[in-house]
Amino acid sequence: MAGTPRLIRVAGDPVLHQPCRQVTSFDAELGELIDDMFASMAVAEGVGLAAPQVGVDLAVFVYDCFDAAGQRHVGHVVNPTIETSGEPEEHDEGCLSVPGPYHELARPTLATVRGVDRTGASVEVTGTGFFARCLQHETDHLRGVLYIDHLPRNRRRRVLREMEPFEWNA
Ligand code: NI
């Protein structure tokens, strides 16, 4: 991967708490952003990363995640929309922008994301299990929503108190 890791923003940074702009220019700068996001995700050992997490308010996310069948999925989506179905399932969830703690959160077990790739060509990605969770988590980021925003206020405060910076991001 040609990218360079960028600093990962942490909860409280305004860029994480506002809706992203749609991508309109499918240029070299977008390609560089996506490469850098892959590099950042790899260094952080994440399963997904959204552009606002590296300080860019554009609707883009990358993923490297296993589904319910143990199949690995690696890719990126620009300007995604999402549809979910299936019984909500509780599972531990964490976020590179909320470093340290994890918390259980119920999410539907099937998700389909539609959008475009770095060239503007249509893409559709369907995920099950943990990958379905990942697709929902990353799409949320682009709306300015962190997983902890789905938790009751007292739980959210507790998770935020437990945050600690990762070594690679210090
Ligand atoms: Ni996250």
Estimate the global geometry from the Cα principal axes.
Answer: globular
- CATH T-level topology: Peptide Deformylase
CATH architecture: Alpha-Beta Complex
Q: Ions, cofactors, ligands: which are bound?
A: nickel (II) ion
Q: What topology, given as strand order, has the largest sheet?
A: 1-2-3-6-7
SS class: alpha+beta
Strand content: 25-35%
Largest sheet, in brief, is:
5 strands, antiparallel
Helix content: 10-25%
What's the helix count? 3
Summarize the structure.
Helices cover 23% and strands 32% of the residues.
Annotate the secondary structure layout.
Layout: H1 28-44, E1 48-50, E2 60-66, E3 72-85, E4 89-95, E5 98-107, E6 110-116, E7 122-128, H2 129-141, H3 153-161
Bound molecules: nickel (II) ion.
Nickel (II) ion is lined by residues 95-97, 137, 141.
Keyphrases for this structure?
170 residues; Peptide Deformylase; binds nickel (II) ion; 7 strands; two-stranded antiparallel sheet; alpha+beta; globular; 5-stranded antiparallel sheet
Structural account:
The chain is an alpha+beta fold and 170 residues long. It has a single domain, classed as Peptide deformylase (Peptide Deformylase). Helices cover 23% and strands 32% of the residues. It contains 3 helices and 7 strands. It has helices at residues 28-44, 129-141, 153-161; strands at residues 48-50, 60-66, 72-85, 89-95, 98-107, 110-116, 122-128. The strands form 2 sheets. Strands 1-2-3-6-7 form a 5-stranded antiparallel beta sheet. It has a two-stranded antiparallel ribbon with strand order 4-5. Strand 4 and strand 5 form a beta hairpin. The chain is globular and about 45 Å long. The mean pLDDT is 95. Nickel (II) ion binds next to helix 2.
